[in-house]
UniProtKB/TrEMBL annotation:
InterPro entries named in the record: Cyt-d_ubiquinol_oxidase_su_1
Membrane topology: Multi-pass membrane protein
Localization: Cell inner membrane
Taxonomy of the source species: Bacteria, Pseudomonadati, Pseudomonadota, Gammaproteobacteria, Lysobacterales
Family the UniProt entry places it in: Belongs to the cytochrome ubiquinol oxidase subunit 1 family.
Broad class of the protein's primary localization: membrane
Coiled-coil region: none
Keywords: Cell inner membrane, Cell membrane, Electron transport, Heme, Iron, Membrane, Metal-binding, Transmembrane, Transmembrane helix, Transport
Descriptive protein name: Cytochrome ubiquinol oxidase subunit I
Length: 303
C-alpha cells in the first residue's frame, strides 16, 4: 500500500508541476524565465536547458545543454507561442515603471484635490503600473524625479538572482523523477513479496527518507525567491512591505519561536530514542509469531 501510494503521489506531482509551469507563464513570466535562465526570447517552441551555468553579468549560460522544444510545450502547450526572455521582460518592466510614475503623480494630485477629473483619468489608465513605480523608492523618495539610470536599475531589480533559482529547480525536479523510479521499484518488489530480501534496495530506501523534504524545501525556495523583488507580484515590492516592528520586538518573537520548537524537538528526539531502545517486539507484540499448538510438551524427568 505504501509503495503504491508513493508511486501515485510522485506521478501526481508531475501533473501538478506541469500545471504550475503553465500558470507561471501566464502570471509570473519573470519567475519562469529565471528558472529557465532564458535571457533572450527564443523562437517557439523554446528549448529546455537541462544543464548550464547562468552568468548574470554576461546574460548567457555557460556549458548549456538543451532539450529541444520541451520548455515551449510545458509552458505554453503549443508549438508557435514564444516565451519572453529576461531582457525582454526587463524592457517591459522599464515601460511599466514609467507608467507607475504617472500613476503616482496622479495619486498625489487626487490626494490634494479629490475632484481633479484629469488626475483620476490618468490614474485609471496607469494604476496597474503603480507597483512598478514603487520600485524606484529603493533609490529615491521623490520617484517623479528619478533619472533614466535609476529607472533602468529599478527595472533590472525585477530579475531575481538566476543561478540559485536555476539549480534549485533542477534539484527539485531531479528528486521528483528519482522518487518515481524508487517507488516504481518498491511497488514491483512488493508485488513479488520479496522486498525484504533486497538488502541493497532497503539501504537505498533508508537514505531516500530525506528526499521528499529536500524537494519540498527546494519548491518553497523556487516559489518565494523566484517572485522577488515582490511581496505581492507586480503590486508591492518586498523592501516596501517591511513591517513597522521595532528590532527588540522581532528578536523577542523569533526567540520565542526558536525556544518553543527547540523544546518540541527535544521531546520528539527523546521519544524516538526510547522507542528505538525498546525495539519492535516490545512495542508491537502482535508482530511476534504465535506459539505452535503442536509444540511437544516436556516429558517427566526433563528439566
Amino acid at each position: 500500500v505504501a509503495a503504491a501510494f508513493g508511486l501515485l503521489s510522485s506521478l501526481s506531482v508531475v501533473v501538478l508541476g506541469d500545471e504550475s509551469g503553465y500558470a507561471a507563464n501566464e502570471h509570473q513570466k519573470m519567475k519562469l524565465a529565471a528558472i529557465e535562465a532564458m535571457w533572450e526570447t527564443e523562437r517557439a517552441p523554446a528549448d529546455f536547458t537541462a544543464f548550464g551555468i547562468p552568468n548574470q553579468q554576461t546574460h548567457q549560460n555557460d556549458y548549456a545543454v538543451k532539450i529541444p522544444y520541451l520548455m515551449g510545450l510545458i509552458a505554453t502547450r503549443s508549438l508557435d507561442q514564444p516565451i519572453p526572455g529576461i531582457l525582454e521582460l526587463v524592457d517591459h518592466a522599464e515601460h511599466r515603471i514609467r507608467g507607475g510614475q504617472l500613476a503616482y503623480a496622479a495619486l498625489e494630485h487626487i490626494r490634494a484635490d479629490r475632484n481633479d477629473r484629469q488626475a483620476r483619468e490618468m490614474f485609471d489608465r496607469h494604476w496597474q503600473d503603480l507597483g512598478h513605480g514603487l520600485l524606484l523608492k529603493r533609490y529615491r523618495d521623490d520617484i517623479l524625479n528619478a533619472t533614466p539610470e535609476e529607472i533602468s536599475r529599478a527595472a533590472m531589480d525585477t530579475v531575481p538572482t538566476v543561478l540559485p533559482l536555476f539549480w534549485t529547480f533542477r534539484v527539485m525536479a531531479g528528486l521528483g523523477f528519482y522518487l518515481i523510479a524508487f517507488f516504481a521499484v518498491a511497488f514491483y518488489y512488493s508485488c513479488r513479496n520479496n522486498f525484504e530480501n533486497k538488502r541493497t534496495f532497503l539501504k537505498i530506501a533508508l537514505w531516500t527518507l530525506p528526499a521528499p523534504w529536500i524537494a519540498i524545501e527546494c519548491g518553497w525556495f523556487v516559489a518565494e525567491y523566484g517572485r522577488q523583488p515582490w511581496a505581492v507580484d507586480g503590486v508591492l515590492p518586498t523592501f516596501y512591505a517591511a513591517s513597522g516592528l521595532a528590532l527588540h520586538q522581532i528578536v523577542l518573537t523569533l526567540t520565542g519561536f526558536v525556544a518553543l520548537y527547540t523544546v518540541l524537538m527535544i521531546i520528539e528526539v527523546k521519544l524516538m530514542l526510547k522507542a528505538i531502545a525498546k525495539g519492535p517486539d516490545e512495542i508491537l507484540p502482535s508482530l511476534q509469531p504465535p506459539a505452535s499448538p503442536h509444540a511437544a510438551a516436556p516429558t517427566a524427568g526433563q528439566a
